[in-house]
Design goal:
The chain has four helices and no strands. The protein has helices at about 20-25, 30-35, 40-45, 55-60.
Length: about 60
């Protein structure tokens, strides 16, 4: 069966959030996690920018 043959319907339109709301609700990355995962932190800050301590950690690396 082809992947586009199945019909996927969201459970409820009220329970699905727009992507913008999910990005705005994203928490700031932890500075320790940023130091251990700089590539992931940079990608996260590219999608959901925050002025936080994680930016200082990335600049210091």
């Amino acid at each position: 069966m082809a992947f586009d043959a199945a019909a996927y319907v969201p459970a409820s339109p009220a329970r699905t959030l727009p992507v913008v709301a999910l990005i705005d609700a994203a928490a700031e990355p932890c500075p320790m996690w940023t130091a251990e995962n700089p590539d992931r932190a940079l990608a996260l800050l590219f999608v959901a920018p925050h002025a936080c301590a994680a930016v200082d950690v990335l600049v210091s690396l």
